Each structure stands twice: as structure tokens, then as C-alpha cells.
């Protein structure tokens, strides 16, 4: 295996959790809800996926636990902000702090254990394609899901009736409500989808990226995912591009250091952030389309019929 | 933002905890941790020391701690909360807490502080440190014997003296066995990020190193090394569980005895500000069992360790040149502690460019 393939494989692993979490948050925000608790939901997914894998021996049940755990945890956010109309920013931050705390508590029993790595699934025929095969078709299930989700969410949001409703709610919840769309119910579902995706991203961390449980192991990836959504101007394909760009620059800078190119490492460490912001801002620089893409009701509370 | 809020929340929780316990007549010896107490590395080693301290004194003392306190300005708030809550002695266990510790200590002259691995002290601020470089020298020698390719990978955190000293010592040890030995260095610019540490490990292995050593806090690099079938060294704690067939040895920080000694001095009133820098011979630093290596390498490692313990061997003994070719140590000359503690240069033989 050549060095380029080796690098690309590492990039895929690094980018997948970002893409997954950002995609979930994208749907949540398209419905007009700003959930800053991505980091918390992600870390809950990580610990639950690890715990379930240890308990059952099956990383696939681990994935389910991660998804379910993230979704359930986001329900707490949903209840507070949608039913009780609490402030979304504050509640989201609280969710992150809570998630980091609870996950540490749950995870205490699993510290230092070596985990089970999610096996790779080779897709017949496709995995034999030179170069591309080993990269794209000899991966783990979570990677396949992440790509399928980008395609699926893009189709869902822009080609389906339900997606149109979500976008309508996100743009103007009062009008959507007047049209008879169940704003609160739909937002609950969108929030839970975001939680499930963040939980799956967490499962990727503790089952694929580094198959172990370490407290705080998400190490800020939830926040990067949140930023990706904004800089990708709420478009699924741009989230994919942004996530992979961030991953690619992160990994390349490590290789640049190991090669001893003599570029200051502080600069290299900052590069993924800078490069991703610059590129995503450039591709979404058209002010009008950005305005169209920005959910106008984002973060605003909605109380029906008042 | 997240870290700030998190620190505030944990500080607030800790305040509540201390207030309820303050009614009893117990001396409070407090700890500030940069990571999680279960990180499997640096912070865990301090927490094991704290537990040994608590066990030694039992009901006489309390040992509250704050985890995940970010370095920098936020640390000041956390330390100040601790000081306010009635701690008599506070151990701040990361290099990045140095300025914050000094600042808070000025405001609380009656509270004693001990800062790990730093170089600033005050009448009520002692410093304590471990001669990690002694262990790194041994690791370097082992690496030079064990590596087929003659190249080791080094995952470094931040370009601070402690880390630079470690790289120098590792390289110097390795080149004492094989003068052509090379080290590839990656600066992760973090102490704690399992994913990034694993990425760095993969990058180094992809570029052909067959021995890995780290100066970051989690076992992720060890895990990657195990997966890729190369050997590695553990850091701060014995990481053998993460790589039973991978770990050659580990530098194990054993702070317990020091914490007990200083707390005794606090209780009998003899505590004073000192600059402690102990090493292998004092037991503050131990080497995890030498494993996964042939007997002759093990024997060499044990001999080197014995020589360092007895004082016969100082890892930084001349002749050593600096990387830029200028002279540092003359033949037989040993490095002064002051120079080591402020080390901001590479010695000759290190292939990396030191970030400034």
C-alpha cells in the first residue's frame, strides 16, 4: 500500500465522525432548532457504543446503542427547548456539559479496556477496483452509512415533501404552523435525527477511530461539526466536502511534520481550521444563496397559537 | 467556551462539595488536573498519587480535586476557587498552570501551592518535577537496539523545556547505541486528544518508523502501534493493557510518596518552598517492566537504569553539541539542572526543527 493510500485511509477515518455529526445538526438546524449539544450527544454515543459492545461482544449492537443513546439524549434537549421553550443556546451548552459528565461516570468501568474494532466489510467486485477499491469499498459499516446519509439527506431535504416541510418550518415556523404543519412534532423528529447522527459519530470514535473509551475522547469534534454546518451554509454536499477537507489538511500537516519540512508546527496545527473556513466561505460566498439557505427561524422559540 | 463553562461548572460543584465538608476539622490537600483522572496516562498517575495520600492519612485529610481544568486563564479561576474553599495545600499538576498558580498564590499567602514541572516559585509556591529524561534515555537505547529500520517516531505535545529535554535525551540515548539512529517528531499541539494522537501515530508508521514513543497523555498511540504490529513505549502510566505485546517499557510517574512527604511536612509545620527535582533513584520515576524484547536488550536497559540510579551515568554528559553545531557540553561535563529546565534547543543528531 502506497503512502498516498495510507494517508487517504487515515483521512477517511478522521473525517467520518465530523461528517456524520454535522449532517445530523444540519437537519436539526434546517428545522429551525439550534442544538449546541453536539459534543455532548457525541460523547454519549461513544460511551454507550463502547459499553454495549463490551456487554454483548457485538460492535453492531454497539452502533445501535450509540445511535439510540444519542437520540434519547437529544430528546432531553427537545423536551426542554420545544415543550418547555427554554433558551436553545443555553440548553445546548448544558447538554454538552451534562453529556461530558455523565459519559465520564458511565465510562469509569471501561477505562483502560481494549475495545473491539468494527470489522471492515469488503463489497464484492467493487473492492477489487485498483486504488479506489481498498479505499472506498473495504471500509466499515459506519463509513458506508455516512456516505449514504449525505446522499439520503440531500435527497430528503430538497426532493421530498417531508423535507420541504422541514425547511418551511425552519424558515418561518408561524407560517408553517398556519399551514397546518406540526411544527413541534417535526422539530422533535429533527432534533432526534441530529442526536442519532451525533451518537453514531460517537460510536465511530470508540469503535473505529480509537477503539477504546477515554473520558472526553471527542476532544472538541462536536464543535468542529457545528462550525462545519454554518460554513457549509446548510448544504449536505458541502458538509461532506468540508469534513473531508478538514480531515485531509489535519492528516497532511502531521505528515508534513514527520517529513521534517521545517514548517512551524503551530501554523500547521491551525491550518485545518483556517483552510476549511476559507474554502467553505469561498464556495458559499454568494450572499443571496447564503441567505436563502440560512434557516430564518434558527434558534427562535415557537409557541403555537399565542 | 465549552471548556470555560465546564471548568466553571466543575468548580461550582466542587465549591458545594467543599462547603458541606468544611464543617469538620480536616486538612484539605487539593489537586488541579489538566485531564481526566482516568486518562490512562499523566493525570491518572497523579490521581494514583492522590489516592495513596488519602490512604496514608485516612480521616485526617480530605483530597478534593478538579479534573479537566484547561491551561491558561481559566486555570486561574479554578485554582482560586480551590484556595477560597479552604485548601491548605494545592497541587497544580500541569506545566501550563504555572503562571496561574503564581498569580493565585500572591492573593492567598497562607495557602501553600506546589506546581508540577514548572520553573517559577514563591515563598508559598514550591515546584516539583521528575527527571523523566532519565527514563527517555533508557528508552532511546532500547529503541536503537529494537528498531530494524533505525528510525523511531516521537509524538510530542508542546515545545516546552520538559518535552524538548525528553526528545534530546531519547535521541542521545539511541545514538549512544547506534550513531546513525533517526527520530521523526510530530508535534500534536495537544496533551490529550486520542483521535489526533492516533492520527499522528499512523502518519509516523506510514512514513516508515518501527518504534513509537509519545509525550502525550492517552493510550491511543500504543493501540495503533499494537494494531500495526510495531513496538512502542508507554508514557506516564504503565500502558501494558493497551499493548500487551507492544509495550517495551513505560516511564511511570509515581507521585504518591512525594505527596505523602509534603503533606506530612504541612501537618507538622515544616513545609517550605523548595524546588524538588527527583529521578529514578528517588522512586518518583519508575520504569514499567522491560518486556517484548530479547534478553540482551533487557540486560542493557537494566544496566543503564542501575547506572543512572547510582549516579554513575548522567544522560546529558558531554561531549554534546547543539543542533546548530555550537558546543554545549565539554567532554565529561554534565548538564546543569538550570539549563535542562529551560531547555529550548535541540542537541546535534535531532532531525527535527524545533518550533519556536
Describe the protein.
Chain A is mainly alpha-helical. Chain A has helices at 3-30, 38-56, 59-83, 88-107, 132-136, 141-159, 161-171, 173-178, 183-209, 221-231, 236-258, 265-283, 287-293; strands at residues 120-122, 138-140. A two-stranded antiparallel ribbon of chain A has the order 1-2. The longest helix of chain A has 28 residues, at 3-30. Chain B is an alpha/beta fold and 356 residues long. Chain B folds into two domains: 2-130, Rossmann fold; 134-252 and 286-341, Response regulator (Rossmann fold). Chain B has helices at 2-21, 42-57, 73-84, 98-107, 132-146, 161-177, 194-206, 220-228, 256-268, 295-310, 337-341, and strands spanning 27-32, 61-62, 65-66, 89-92, 112-116, 125-130, 151-156, 182-187, 211-214, 231-236, 247-253, 275-278, 285-287, 320-321, 327-329. In chain B, the strands form three sheets. In chain B, strands 1, 2, 3, 4, 5, 6 and 12 form a seven-stranded parallel beta sheet that branches. In chain B, strands 8-7-9-10-11-13 form a six-stranded mixed beta sheet, with helices on both faces. In chain B, strand 4 (89-92), helix 4 (98-107) and strand 5 (112-116) form a beta-alpha-beta unit. The two termini of chain B are 27 Å apart. Mean pLDDT of chain B is 91; it is low at 1-5 and 11-23. Chains A and B meet through helix 1, helix 4, helix 11 and helix 12 of A and helix 1, strand 8, helix 7 and helix 8 of B.
Topology of this structure?
The complex is a heterodimer of chains A (about 300) and B (about 350).
Chain A: H1 3-30, H2 38-56, H3 59-83, H4 88-107, E1 120-122, H5 132-136, E2 138-140, H6 141-159, H7 161-171, H8 173-178, H9 183-209, H10 221-231, H11 236-258, H12 265-283, H13 287-293
Antiparallel strand pairs in A: 1-2
Helix pairs in contact in A: 1-6, 1-9, 1-10, 1-11, 2-3, 2-4, 2-9, 2-10, 3-4, 3-9, 6-7, 6-11, 10-11, 11-12
Chain B: H1 2-21, E1 27-32, H2 42-57, E2 61-62, E3 65-66, H3 73-84, E4 89-92, H4 98-107, E5 112-116, E6 125-130, H5 132-146, E7 151-156, H6 161-177, E8 182-187, H7 194-206, E9 211-214, H8 220-228, E10 231-236, E11 247-253, H9 256-268, E12 275-278, E13 285-287, H10 295-310, E14 320-321, E15 327-329, H11 337-341
Parallel strand pairs in B: 1-2, 1-3, 1-4, 4-5, 5-6, 6-12, 7-8, 7-9, 9-10, 10-11
Antiparallel strand pairs in B: 11-13, 14-15
